[in-house]
Amino acid sequence: MSHVRLLNVTKRFGDVTAVNSLNLEIGKGECFSMLGPSGCGKTTTLRMVAGFEDLSEGEVYVGDRLLSCPQRNYYLPPEKRNFGMVFQAFAVWPHLSVYDNVAFPLQIRNFPTEEIDKRTKDALRSTNLLNVADKSPADLSGGGKQRVALARALAINPDVMLLDEPLSSLDPHLREEMRFEIKDLQRKYGFSIIYVTHDQAEAMALSDRILVMKLGVVQQIDTPFDVYNKPANKFVFSFIGLSNFLDVVWSDDKAYVRGETTALPLSLFPPESMRGSEGLSLASRPSEIDFVSDEEADVLQGVVSRKAFLGEIVDYQVKIGDQELRIQKGRRTRGPELGENCRLRFSRPFWYSGNA
Ligand SMILES: Nc1ncnc2c1ncn2[C@@H]1O[C@H](COP(=O)(O)OP(=O)(O)OP(=O)(O)O)[C@@H](O)[C@H]1O
Ligand SMILES: [Mg+2]
Asked: Beta strand pairing status for 160-164 and 2-13?
């Protein structure tokens, strides 16, 4: 059953359409992430759901309850929406104790004193902060401060948690740890999450579904598996995971990697529907290209122009025609040396024409 629903939500700032006709349904207890380049409209979307930003058009619902609808001039203020929010900057108040930081939103909602105490302590316990309740958040580490922000959002027992890059100011190790903690808290409290991040690994690890957005327009909404394996277009392919694109040109009805004099092998021939098309590219993942032996026919050939040992993997750059291809292999796989010719087999080529 859908829990949060956005219908044709649009937001314009003057000439800029920050969010363009967004339709979205998020299930109860679902963890839903929004990914996309800077300025694509993620924060604006979250702020509209939270009630900090008006809509230009459209409607936002939680269950059957209408939250915002400019056409009907209806708008429910943020404090009546029962959403927890955590933003990128820690946004904790250093002049209040950890306890008071968490209790504050309950106080302004006029909860009875015993209820405030119970909820505050529960939230502090869940985030392992009970033993520092009397300290100032200024004395805590980055992860500690972020926990205070989480505890404060948890204390109101939210229906939905809105998280806007909540971990981006933490170091990678702590980020990973906090990621799991957020997931555990979700299991315990049962809220839905709308999570905004730049970090695809974070989105993949946390989410039931991911939305990929570009310039205010949805490109794809799918499970992490499908966004990675069945990208809706070239943009999604390039945005999720590592990607290679080789420009392919046509001559006498044969396809060539641009700058290369040998035509593409049959195993890599573009689909019939793209025959002769302009702006054609052969897309691939660096881990989905294999080095094959000299006996293998029907392969693409190149020269290793860079080879870097990265620990578990070896990262190659291979020159084909006037273009470069990145290939990554496990350190146990035997690969060519710098400057050597190599023969390549693509286990999963994707084709795109134009900018689609
Ligand atoms: N208050 C505002 N006034 C004018 N333009 C705004 C305002 N807020 C956002 N925008 C514009 O709306 C677009 C979307 O911005 P938004 O902050 O939602 O992007 P974002 O996806 O969160 O980016 P980032 O990843 O950098 O946080 C941008 O073009 C931005 O400049
Ligand atoms: Mg943002």
From this structure: unpaired
Q: Work out how many domains the chain is built from and give that number.
A: 2
Question: 44 CB less than 6 Å from ligand 1?
Answer: yes
User: Residue 340: which domain range?
Assistant: 242-352
> Which three-class secondary structure state does DSSP give residue 75?
strand
Contacts of 96 (CB under 8 A, 6+ apart): 104, 136, 137
43 Cα to the center of ligand 1, angstroms: 7
Ligand 1 pocket residue status of 225, Cβ below 6 Å: no
Q: What is the pLDDT of residues 144-173, one digit of tens each?
A: 888 899 899 889 889 899 999 888 777 788
Core vs surface per residue 272-282: b (16+ CB within 10 A) or e: eebeeeeebbb
Per residue in 301-322, pLDDT tens? 999 999 999 999 999 999 999 9
- For the entire predicted model, the pTM comes to 0.89
Q: For residue 239, how far is its CA from the centre of ligand 2 (angstroms)?
A: 17
Do 16 and 160 share a structural domain? yes
